[in-house]
Specification:
Strand content: 15-25%
Structural class: alpha/beta
Number of strands: 12
Low-confidence stretches: none
Distance between the termini: 33 Å
Bound molecules: 6-O-phosphono-alpha-D-glucopyranose
Radius of gyration: 20 Å
Shape: globular
Mean pLDDT: 96
Length: 374
């Protein structure tokens, strides 16, 4: 049943719209509600026996390719905050190109929807040779990565057919947020923060259901952008990864050039591209970076940038500097979970752009779902 399109026209469309359910499955049995004698907590059976070693690691290294790498990047801030251990990110091919340092005292996490990506598998072999504890985060039970790692967590997002990953991305972020929660579980000072995130996780499928209602709005935006050459997406903090992933979706399926840009780097190059023609999405939902993003919007507006601002519900008039600016208002959730919400309108935009431009949604040219060769 999972592998037919139901009433949808494309697998990618179906997979975008089933995210409330895939996220529910990802979290099923793993969130403990707590009561008067037991705190709210997270249970990840696959990591249980290795938590002590993970907490004592010198470093947590997250390794992946494409969307899976972006998912790790989205979870990085919360992993850093709750684990108390330095967290680094590696694109698998780049780690191998550099033969970058991996130590016995490291815990290396291998993030892969398919569990079969050649670069990620080679990086796993390399980390095993170097003696690191290796943890798999995959969507495929029995895959090479789940078999060859010491332990792991399945994301349980259900079978993903569209070459462009959508529901696996949001489930990967949720799994890594849950990993951050279990690693930090022995720290009393962050108990309140952890409970707020767990509450946020319980409510997340509903919030995703709400953001999916933007479908028609994103179709209208796609109509407006259909003939553009290029689209920039600015993000920072929790949503730097959202900018990268939104741009990746747009370029891989709609074949429109698109770049995700770290807003903090705007003045160091990207600002030169800004004029009255180039459309720019700025992600400015509420979090600790909000004021800085407001200033980015002002600076882009001063250079006549064509702005599309993604903001928290009710912030539209606050963030938009002029009538020419378009707003995408999204439900606000706990800051570290906001990337799960914010990526959805960009997935919808990429989907509608592709259909309008007449390209193959589920099989973009030159791309494969699982890249098993180097
Ligand atoms: C390919 C797919 C992407 C995916 C990447 C990593 O490029 O087209 O959608 O993100 O591989 O795949 P993995 O299965 O390791 O997550």
């Amino acid at each position: 049943e999972q592998i037919n399109k139901g009433h949808y026209e494309h697998y990618m469309q179906k997979e975008i719209h089933e995210q409330p359910e895939s996220l529910t499955t990802t979290m099923r049995g793993r969130l403990i509600r707590g009561d008067s004698c037991k705190a709210k907590s997270v249970l990840l059976g696959g990591l249980k026996d290795h938590l002590k070693t993970i907490r004592r690691s010198r470093r947590l290294v997250f390794i992946g390719c494409g969307t899976s790498y972006n998912a790790a990047l989205a979870a990085r801030p919360i992993l850093e905050e709750l684990s108390g251990v330095p967290v680094t990110m590696e694109i698998a091919s780049d780690l191998l190109d550099r033969q970058g340092p991996i130590y016995r005292e490291d815990t290396a996490f291998f993030v892969s929807q398919s569990g079969e990506t050649a670069d990620t598998l080679n990086a796993l072999e390399y980390a095993l040779e170097n003696g690191a504890l290796c943890v798999g985060i995959t969507n495929t039970v029995g895959s090479a990565i789940s078999r060859n790692t010491h332990c792991g967590v399945h994301i349980n997002a259900g079978c993903e057919i569209g070459v462009a990953s959508t529901k696996a991305y949001t489930s990967q972020i949720v799994v890594m947020a849950m990993i951050a929660l279990v690693i930090g579980d022995d720290t009393i000072s962050s108990q309140g923060r952890r409970e707020a995130i767990i509450d946020g996780l319980f409510d997340l499928p509903n919030k995703v259901r709400e953001v999916l209602k933007l479908d028609q709005e994103m179709k209208d935006l796609a109509k407006l952008l259909v003939s553009e050459q290029s689209l920039l997406v600015f993000g920072r903090g929790y949503n730097y990864a959202t900018a990268l992933e939104g741009a990746l979706k747009v370029k891989e399926v709609s074949l429109m050039h698109s770049e995700g840009i770290l807003a903090g780097e705007m003045k160091h190059g990207p600002l030169a591209l800004v004029d009255e023609n180039l459309p720019i999405v700025v992600i400015a939902t509420r979090d600790a970076c909000f004021t800085k993003q407001q200033s980015v919007i002002q600076q882009l507006h001063a250079r006549k940038g064509r702005l599309i601002v993604m903001c928290s519900k009710g912030d539209g008039s606050l963030v938009c500097p002029g009538d020419s600016c378009r707003v995408i208002e999204v439900p606000q959730v706990e800051d570290c979970l906001q990337p799960v919400i914010n990526v959805v309108p960009l997935q919808l935009l990429a989907y509608h752009l592709t259909v309008l431009r007449g390209y193959n949604v589920d099989q973009p040219r030159n791309l494969a779902k699982s890249v098993t060769t180097q």
